[in-house]
Amino acid sequence: MTQQPFVGRGAIDLSALKRPAPQQAPTGAGGDAKPGAPVSAYAVAVDEQNFQSVLQSSTTAPVVLVFHSPSQAPESSQMADDVADIVGQYDGRFLVGIVDVDAVPQIAQVIAQASQLPQLPVPLLMVFLDGRPAIQPIPGMVSRDELSTLFNELGQQLTAQGITGRHQPLAGAPAESDEDEEDGPDPRYAPAQDALAAGDIDGAVAEYQKLVDSNPADAEAAAGLAMAKVLQRTQGVDLDAARAAAAADPDDVDAQTMVADLDLLGGHVDDAFARLIELVRRTSDKDRDRTREHLLALFAAVGNEDPRVLKGRQALASALF
Length: 321
Description:
Layout: E1 43-45, H1 51-56, E2 63-68, H2 74-87, E3 95-100, H3 105-114, E4 124-129, E5 132-133, E6 138-139, H4 144-160, H5 178-181, H6 190-197, H7 201-214, H8 219-234, H9 239-248, H10 253-265, H11 269-282, H12 285-302, H13 307-320
Parallel strand pairs: 1-3, 2-3
Antiparallel strand pairs: 2-4, 4-5, 4-6
């Protein structure tokens, strides 16, 4: 699934809700689990009382709203469970608000009006940052594999943009096991992430390089280093000028790899891969080697388990042989 980068849009007008929303932090729902109910420490059932505070949490880190309806589309409740479960693996990079439109139709009406829709489609997935939709809403059923790909890409975009905030686990959320508690954010990555948050790209590259040098098998550090180097290469680059240069000379390795880097940062992962794979087909010797090595670095930045990387590797093998 190709995902668009974070973009600023209009804030949601909450005035249509009948009851004012208190300002306390959102809390998880207790009781027995049921389809569409919170299933992690970073998921909350949304109602009129906590809707505003859930959205306000997006000033810390992105908030994902999942709209489901047990009566209209029973399968949508399973999708809500999948989103909550997947997001729970990101240690607070996202918070999920689960909206049962049967129980709180007013919230669905507010979102439909803000989106200029006659009726809200169900299921629907939205991502908010700083109180505003951050990506185009995603209507309809999305498979678990596609959801995993989506959040992997969003997590990479957060890192690329230096957005490193995390939500705190919700009070009243399902208890975590001791093993889960030990799997919190690894402090080894904090210096690099702090450097990114401060806009110090060179510092982030240096910190990730230290981690890779000390443990070449550290896949997360390798991915972080690869993405930080993309940011480093593209600092101060004019997108229009870069595209013009690439269009003027399709076989210029420097020009083509620069646009591929910019495409990757813009969320156009498949386009970035396709550009360099075609360049591999057209070039030879040192130019081909440089292009291939650059493409492999972009594979590492996206993550070797990403389906687009697996597809890209197959295409690269075909281009080489």
